[in-house]
Design a protein that fits this description.
This protein has a four-stranded antiparallel beta sheet with strand order 1-2-4-3, with helices on one face. With about 110 residues, the chain is α+β, with helices and mostly antiparallel strands. β1 and β2 form a beta hairpin. The mean pLDDT is about 80. It contains two helices and four strands, in the order ββαββα. The chain has a domain of about 80 residues: SUI1-like domain (Translation Initiation Factor Eif1).
Length: about 110
């Protein structure tokens, strides 16, 4: 049997392997380790331009995925706009930080000053 050319004389030990096809699993990078009640949140806004249109981002939410989805659905209905949830933030279509702040503060969420 032929020896692999890349392993000729190489001693990889137990931690190393010549096969680079196996990938390690990454732990999700989230700033929140536990869920918080609305009054403990310190949210802030960010704006991005995507394909010439403005997207308003509110982050970081320390909620479970289901709770974040229900919050998104409620706010989208109140504002009459589209949006999505990613990792621990919400994205809304349009430049609407004032309306978002008003509705989220009415629900008990707090913002950084």
């Amino acid at each position: 049997m032929k020896k692999n050319l890349f392993e000729m004389g190489a001693d990889f030990g137990e931690e190393w392997s010549s096969d680079n096809k196996t990938k390690g699993t990454k732990a999700p990078s989230s700033a929140c380790r536990e869920t918080l009640p609305p009054e403990k949140h310190q949210l802030h806004f960010a704006k991005e331009k995507r394909r010439g249109k403005v997207v308003t981002i509110v982050k970081p939410f320390c909620l479970e995925k289901g709770a974040l989805q229900s919050l998104l659905k409620t706010v989208k209905k109140k504002l009459g706009t589209g949006g999505t949830s990613k990792e621990n933030w919400l994205e809304f279509q349009g430049d609407i930080p004032e309306l978002l702040r008003k509705h989220l503060e009415a629900m008990g969420y707090r913002f950084k000053k």
